[in-house]
Structure formats: structure tokens, C-alpha cells
Amino acid sequence: xxxxxxxxxxxxxxxxxxxxxxxxxxxxxxxxxxxxxxxxxxxxxxxxxxxxxxxxxxxxxxxxxxxxxxxxxxxxxxxxxxxxxxxxxxxxxxxxxxxxxxxxxxxxxxxxxxxxxxxxxxxxxxxxxxxxxxxxxxxxxxxxxxxxxxxxxxxxxxxxxxxxxxxxxxxxxxxxxxxxxxxx
Length: 184
Known about the structure:
Blueprint (H helix, E strand, L loop, with lengths): L18 H18 L6 H11 L7 E2 L3 E3 L5 E3 L4 E2 L3 E4 L4 E3 L4 E2 L4 E3 L1 E2 L4 H5 L4 E2 L2 E3 L4 E2 L4 E2 L4 E2 L4 E2 L4 E2 L7 E4 L4 E5 L2
Parallel strand pairs: 1-4, 2-5, 3-6, 4-7, 5-8, 6-11, 7-12, 8-13, 11-14, 12-15, 13-16, 15-17
Antiparallel strand pairs: 9-10, 17-18
Helix pairs in contact: 1-2
């Protein structure tokens, strides 16, 4: 592997304060604000805002308050539901499959920061994709960290912090989340 190849041990660093990324975040924050202040009866307007904000929507239901960094990195499958206070920090792609449900206060973050204090102090950060396959349920307060993939039919218990991949047909709980049983 050469020095400039990407790997979990050698992530690509970027400057989140560059002009282009600041403008993209400002756009997303404005759209999130507009979405979060729509009357609940304005379903058509809410869907239009989501369509302008996210990469792929498929008639998702996302309760307020919803926040994201960019929006264009988020792809939602069919029948997606997110309960109140969902935050997705999408500096890298976030791909969510069909029939996925989030409980209240679920957070996904693709962003992370270097362990080296000098690099971290420079303001540089990195991001890794999150993938959530079909038929996944995240309980209230679940946190999904950078680089995680959840297999099909996974259930993550309330309050769990998911730091590594979870295989299909698994129930995972705890901090950090660990598989406690297989689901049939």
C-alpha cells in the first residue's frame, strides 16, 4: 500500500471549513430549518424539501426535528421512518435500505477526528461511509459511528453505541454495542 491509498488506518483528511463545504452545510441547515418549521399538515411541502435536501428519499417519513450536515450524501430506501430528533452527519455517504425504522434521538455520524493532537488541532477531519441494510430497527438513542455497516434484519437496542459492523439477523445492545443473539 502506498502512502496515499485510503485505508482504515490511513483515512483521507479534509478541511471542513473550506468555502465549498461551508456553503453546502449552510444550504442543508436552511433546508432542515424550513423542514422542521413546516406545519404537520404540509406533507407535500415536507416531501419537496426532503427531495431538495437528500440524495434519495422514496417518500420517507422523518419527524421533526431532523438535522444533517449536507443531505446530498444521504440515500433512503423505501418505507423509511425516523422518529423525532434524528441527526445524520453525512460528510461521507449514508446509505439506508428499505423498511428501516429509527426510534427517537438516533444519531449517525460519518465524521471522525484524528487521534494525533497536532493534526486534530489543525482542524482537519475524516469521514467514513455508513451502510444500513434492509429491515433494520434502531431503538431510541442509538448512535452509529463512522464506517459502520449494519446487515439485513438487524435490531439495535435503545441507547447502544455501534462502533463496528453488525452481521445480518442480529440483536445488538450496549456500549459499545455487542451482538447478544441471532434473530430468526
